[in-house]
Amino acid sequence: MADPQEVLSQRVQSALGAAFGTEFAETDPVIRPSQFADYQANVALALAKRLGRKPRDVASAIEERLDVDDVCREVEISGPGFINLILRDDWIAGQTQGLLSDPRLGVAQPQPQNIPIDYSAPNVAKEMHVGHLRTTVVGDALARTLEFLGHNVIRQNHIGDWGTPFGMLIEHLLDAGEHSAEADLLKTDPNAFYQAAKAQFDTSEEFATRARKRVVLLQGGDTETLRLWQELVDLSKVYFNKVYSALGVTLTDDDLAGESTYNDMLPEICDELERQGLAEVSEGALCVFLDGYTGREGNPVPLIIRKSDGGYGYATTDLATVKYRVEELKADRILYVVGAPQNLHFRMVWDTARKAGWVPDTVETTHVQIGNVLGSDHKILRTRSGKSIRLMELLDEAVERATQVVAENRPDLDDETRAQIAREVGIGAVKYADLSVSHDTEYVFDFDRMLALTGNTGPYLQYAQARIRSIFRKGGVTPEDAAAGTIKVTESAERDLALALLGFAPTVQLVGETLEPHRLCAYLFDLAQAFTSFYDQCPVLKAEDAELRASRLALTAATLRTLVQGLDVLGVHAPEQM
Ligand SMILES: NC(=[NH2+])NCCC[C@H](N)C(=O)O
Fold it and tell me: Motif span ('HIGH' region) (predicted)?
């Protein structure tokens, strides 16, 4: 184990047990990074009260029994009873060396869990909007991170592929003609098709009547209607996959588990809730009333699970998702990466499902709330004419702008290489902008900021790792060969860089627990900066002697691997050159 904080925690806990009895061996030793030492153990202050002794005495008692000679160069009691811990340089070097021979970069293998993760979930025959973009990008980063940690991640793309709009969509498909140019638009510009269908529905009584009849046929399972519905879904899948491949996200058709998947479960869900006395008919609709959910005038807010016309809605399908994920997917932990406004919906659905006994207490359900993406006017991002933005156009513009950045920086490269780099940088910039702020906050979409080569941006980190690759090219060494070098830590910049490298595993673990990829972004940004200071202060290729050169090249190799691995779990490409 390479995490100094974890190692020191265990050592201090042993000392606590030895000094005050085994019941203290699990007390939190309160190890914190400190400006006066590498770390401080602050447990003595809290314990003093409990023990009725002076904090400094408690600290001395701990220090006396503390066995850290192999890890620390100095242990010193300061102030009212802080224990300052300064790590040994050779310990830091040894632990960093360990990272180089570990494909997991120090990340411990956890007890693997089954984790279904619901993300992206665009709607059939509709444009994906920036909100979908963000759940797709954040969800994918979480899926990758949990997978890297060693869990069994089950991607669930809950696309909106059912409901009353399909009546008008199917009728419009028939009017436009199957395989017509207009139908083909669904693969590239779904909104045009949707709007045309909607316009028909709103203006033609004849069309509206057909559309309503079509909904009944669809729900009744009419074969021809289902075939047409499937065609709409298939055309939309082409569009979704185009977006996914442009973004480089890991979702495939195998991960599709849309609303329609759960149709067969819905009647039974309602029956069972009724049987259990959890649901009751109110104004013709079957509703669940839960304690603690009241509206403006104190009226109870119902979770409607069957409408008065007999139809099922979003709530019923989501009851099915959680039941299915527990019972069939054997989930240990279930994540829903969905827009923040849907929080009330999920809380009510899960409360109901738990009451019904479908979700045991041991299974955690989490709504990873996605905040809005805003335009420069601080309103939900739209085009100037107020229409929602076409996602593909947005991505194309990012690549277009990145093309200019790359052209300025690398006029020496051929067009094709430059175009490839521009794609990786443009998409990387958009994705990183979504990831680097905490997922539940709103942020302003700003091309200039996300594409900047300075600051906590995708292009800055991509550039940082590309620059390291160029060091190896210049030195005629491969990173793999360099990794065999023996690390020695003497200069303070080397020490800082090595300590930063040891922070990778705990950070990834923390992201797995908190589901906050922005913590990994902040870590990688700090690491890249630690490398810059190191590279400024410590000659690498021109180091004084061969041993020093080998050590610094090994540190450089460890940095490259960590940056590339970190970007990879975020889903951001790391170009060879930039
Ligand atoms: N299980 C879920 N409800 N997942 C999220 C679905 C998101 C929905 N399709 C939307 O566009 O808002």
Answer: 122-132
